[in-house]
Amino acid sequence: MADGVSAGGSTGPEGSHGSRGSARSAGAGLVPPPSDIQALWAARGVAVIGVSDRAGSLGQLPVRFLERYGYRGPVSIIHPSGGQVMGRPSHRSLAVAPWPIDLVVVLVGSDRVEAVIDDCIAEGIGTAIICSSGFAETGDAGAALQERLVAKARAGGVRLLGPNCIGTVGVAAGQVTSFSPLFSGERTELVPGPIGFVSQSGALGYGAVSLAFERGLGLGWVVNTGNEADISAVEVMAAMADEPGCRGILAYAESLGDIAGLRAVVDRGVPVALLKAGRSDAGARAAASHTGALAAGDRVVDAALRQIGVVRVDDVDELLDVGDVMTCPPLAGGRIAIVTTSGGSGILAADAVERHGLTLAALAAETTVALDEIVPAFGSTANPVDVTASVMSNGALFDRTLDAIADDPGVDGIVACFCVLTGKDVDDVVNSLSRVAERSGKPVVVARTGADHLAPAANSQMRAAGIPCYQTPARAVRALAALHSFSREHASSRSEAPVPVEGAVSDGRERMSHQTPPHGASEQDVKDLLAAAGIPVPTGRFVDRADDAAQAVEECGGAAVFKAVVPGLVHKSDAGGVVVGVTPDRAAAAYEQVAGLGGRVWAEELVGGGVEALVGCAPSPLGPVLTVGVGGVLTEVFNDVALRLLPVTAADVEQMVDETRLSTLLAGVRGAAPADRAALVETVCRLAGIVGSWPSGFELDLNPVTVLPQGHGVRVLDAAYIAPTSDALERTGAHADPEHPA
Amino acid sequence: MADGVSAGGSTGPEGSHGSRGSARSAGAGLVPPPSDIQALWAARGVAVIGVSDRAGSLGQLPVRFLERYGYRGPVSIIHPSGGQVMGRPSHRSLAVAPWPIDLVVVLVGSDRVEAVIDDCIAEGIGTAIICSSGFAETGDAGAALQERLVAKARAGGVRLLGPNCIGTVGVAAGQVTSFSPLFSGERTELVPGPIGFVSQSGALGYGAVSLAFERGLGLGWVVNTGNEADISAVEVMAAMADEPGCRGILAYAESLGDIAGLRAVVDRGVPVALLKAGRSDAGARAAASHTGALAAGDRVVDAALRQIGVVRVDDVDELLDVGDVMTCPPLAGGRIAIVTTSGGSGILAADAVERHGLTLAALAAETTVALDEIVPAFGSTANPVDVTASVMSNGALFDRTLDAIADDPGVDGIVACFCVLTGKDVDDVVNSLSRVAERSGKPVVVARTGADHLAPAANSQMRAAGIPCYQTPARAVRALAALHSFSREHASSRSEAPVPVEGAVSDGRERMSHQTPPHGASEQDVKDLLAAAGIPVPTGRFVDRADDAAQAVEECGGAAVFKAVVPGLVHKSDAGGVVVGVTPDRAAAAYEQVAGLGGRVWAEELVGGGVEALVGCAPSPLGPVLTVGVGGVLTEVFNDVALRLLPVTAADVEQMVDETRLSTLLAGVRGAAPADRAALVETVCRLAGIVGSWPSGFELDLNPVTVLPQGHGVRVLDAAYIAPTSDALERTGAHADPEHPA
């Protein structure tokens, strides 16, 4: 440590009078030190390492950008010469730099990064952005280098962003600790705002940031996480969510591991929208080769994100569209009123309302009466309300129209649609809309389907009034649907307890319910375990002699199923190892057939007449996934299953049933009696509780679980268990689809 | 007729020396007369009626616009005073206007329109744009007025556009015969191009046109059809398709009736993209109240458009995105190569490739070898090809990369993805891409995910080079998918003959196959008719006495199904009117049960063990719809059916089977033998041929049609026929879903 060594002038215009010390030890300063993550956007002082006078030196860029965008803290250029660099004084090392440094931006060759980290450790500097590439993204050697780097940094208490990243921006402070060419743009300006932006991709991330600024969507904190050797996107999101004034977070991710961490961000009440790439098999392969991260089966990702309340989007413009709506008041219900000057826009908006699971508000009789007095005959007073040009040309009439609609208690949110809106109309429209938005407290969004140049200030005027403006009705409604998701997430009780690990029955068998099936567990082993936990299975026993077979059938109630129990035989039916409907007279013959496969013979009661469900559990990179859906032979045909990460609540399980056609089947088709849905839900919850305590990596398929008529419960007719293997965690969620029907 | 009456100066700077006469009689002129529809964009002379000096007179607008945008033909202002209007000379009537008039733009009150049409008839003017509102869109009185207007115009040989429309634009000629406020915009400029634009909505249509011009998408012909009392959108599209140089048509429609007309447009080889609003129930209701047109069930619309090769889009920006790709060379196959400077963009593009049914090209070994020499280790030579910044900074390397990819015979089209593209990069990129596009003849599109201001000329430079540029990878790929649809449509033989109306068997029963089922036809009536046409049904006969029942079962092969034949009883099973598996010993009892319902008893052979399909036909506003899908009890649960308008080809039917899970069921599930798919397809074709000759409006459900193991054919086990009712044509396509399982 070399405090207070004088080292010439400062590139930072202010704050340069503080005595040099590590950021962490500079506690006597006026500004409290940022956390290690906060330093990425709120460092009190920055050092840049890897700056030279060579043309094209990327290290010059952050130095220039910090000046250009008005960063007020000191910027130390570290250069071995200690002489002038970029016409500015440099310092030979971090140790001799005279100003506080919370953050180091590293742009040296990959082989020189370790030494920089040593210096950071020595100086007690908490955070480094490693822009350098040449690490895990290039192969095994790079990965080893990256591992050493992280181990060193962790041991020394330095947090690393990257490597292989483009850096960060603290927008309010003008802290552009990034070398993105975006900030070289002649007309680039930072647009401050309450939204955080995190991207695993640098180029795409800053491209999206440029589009956000271009549309006037203000951002507060921008981070590109690169290889995520240490600091992850989710950790960054959590820190952004802790910033006072943060109203939402937009993220681009290619890999997604820490779902619990993401849930914690949402649980802080900050809405999160995520563009998760790698949705397709093709995309997932590309993702894997790009970041070295495992791509989770996309259905699992979808289910998990829905479960924790993150809105998933499919494209960059949709991500930014959602960002625009994050600052709106909550959309408590999904009942949308559409006000339009064009019938066509109204219909497109109505289409989108249905597509996105919102509902077209049914206007109250009083509302319609009020509108009848305003809207001419060639308009429409039903929703979508077509106000016509004549209402639009009279500001007072338009105000009354909006008031009538906003005051309707059956309306939760409003979409106002315009087409060719010219300059002179805009003031009136903005005034009317902002007045009604403020007065009603309901979210109001605008679709303006016309060229910008017709009213160049319209979008910024609306934005200033808190009214997001989209180019088409469909996009406006899609954003409202996201707002509805966020609002529901807020409103719903996040405290509903997940299903506990159950002792199930209280006859002293609790211990068994926690028991994990042995490796190679047979159907009967699994069923015993389930039965011990209070999950109903058919009664049955082993038959070991042909002349005992008829007796066994009688014990089963006069009709039985004979099943082969052969270690390693998974597809019993295909091998002729299952005989259904065995009567006492045919019992011996059935025994001989099944026993002929070389194992033992299991006889169990024949349970008929129910609806066949599938209940399963499989590993995924995000954790064990519960699967509920249509069972039996239809499983393979329709692949109609719902997924959830464990743990789940009973409400989750109800929702899973509703998401699939299983709900239709259970309700009774073609006059069939309704099945015992409640018993199925209870069984699934019970199962979820049990398997939650099993070591991860196993697969379990209960298929079919027969759901009998109401009041008669369920029976697990077949069960297959596959023990964890060493590569179980590498399996994708595709395995949640049952591939092992017994 | 008052030829040659002198009437003062002209508002049209040229062509004013021609002697006045009706356009049609002015055959001696140098320019050949346009057709009545062509006059909407290529009139040799225009008259405007409804112009006054009153502030806000809409009639002033077309006069101003025609001047402002450089229309070179004469413009006659018709005003009863015959004096100066807008500081220009007017003429008291069409009869005294001295110049040729191909088109009259009418902006008078609805009560005065008929008189104008009288004048048009008298003057032999072929076409009038009725901008006036107050017709069918306002209620019954307006509808009656509109009917009278059309009757008069038809009788007199005048074609009407509108009423209640905003007019038309012939872009090349500067013929802005419209009063849209778009054309008042200070910075509005017409952008000529080879694409036609037709909209049933005025405001939304011209809003979309403004967005097209803003992005530089050139249009040739713009028409808003309004109420479509006479000229329909489809008729306009046909005329646009006939224009030399037309490369594609974009349309917005709320109602769609003339599907055959639309097919004829596509068959001319002109690609058509359609934004069909009213997709949702909510939207469809809004559409009906907006235009008075019937909304067809959306699944029918979807199926019909796919069938005829029209690309359906969901939003305005998607419509324009597709417009941008219409001028690309055809995308013969669907194998896409992605070249990217950002891994993230590459993954998003790959996701979109899969989402839109294209395939990620598998690059040839030689291509990969070539790329290995160019792309550094931290890039990727697999598709998506991540060229990295180092390749991009070297124009020659980027050229070689593109050449290697474009020369790969396994690549049909290329998406190039960029993010923050700054001004200096653009020239190189455009040169490289346009060179490879021209050389290879393969379509190349660009995704540029960065703010415009970073390289303001980029989009127009790319456009000039014939390379469409989109804001995101997903949008670029979506446009390529549309191009692929158009290209396939072109390539596929449009001449495959539909299934003819079949005489079926040649044993003298042809006559029967054309017979329509009688009103109230029973299951047995329909089956007789099908059997006569060669469609297999179970053997069976009526049983009229209990003591004949066992004999009937024996004749059926020892096991039978007994069915009640009671006029009006549709849901036989629910009423206990079907007994399955009747053996001789139980025959009498079964007879009594079924006969107890009050009708006759039908005994037929028990056919078991097949896959249950549904085959049906139902009316829709677009014509009779054939339905094929999963049958039996699963029909209601999974609603998994494919639809096609009749007539169909055998290839269509094969495709229908493939679109549903019926294909999986037919292939054999869990070791079941494959079913006789060929027999099913043949039966469906045969049925399609028969019902094609039935009077429209009926519903027919064959469900289940049991498909037996290969070589054993099919049997129609149940059939329900509902005769046409007077309101059959008002039914939506939703009725194509079977609601009447017997």
Model description:
Two copies of one chain form a homodimer. In chain A, helix 16 links the parallel strand 19 and strand 20 (469-470). Chain A has 742 residues and is an alpha/beta fold. The model of chain A is unreliable at 1-28, 287-296, 501-513 and 727-742 (pLDDT under 50). Helices cover 34% and strands 19% of the residues of chain A. In chain A, the strands form six sheets. In chain A, strands 9-8-11-10-12-13-14 form a seven-stranded mixed beta sheet, with helices on both faces. In chain A, strands 15, 16, 17, 18, 19 and 20 form a six-stranded parallel beta sheet that branches. In chain A, strands 25, 26, 27, 28, 29 and 30 form a six-stranded antiparallel beta sheet that branches. In chain A, helix 3 packs parallel to helix 4 and helix 12 (365-372) packs antiparallel against helix 14 (395-407). Chain A is built from 25 helices and 30 strands. The interface between A and B is large, with 96 and 96 residues.
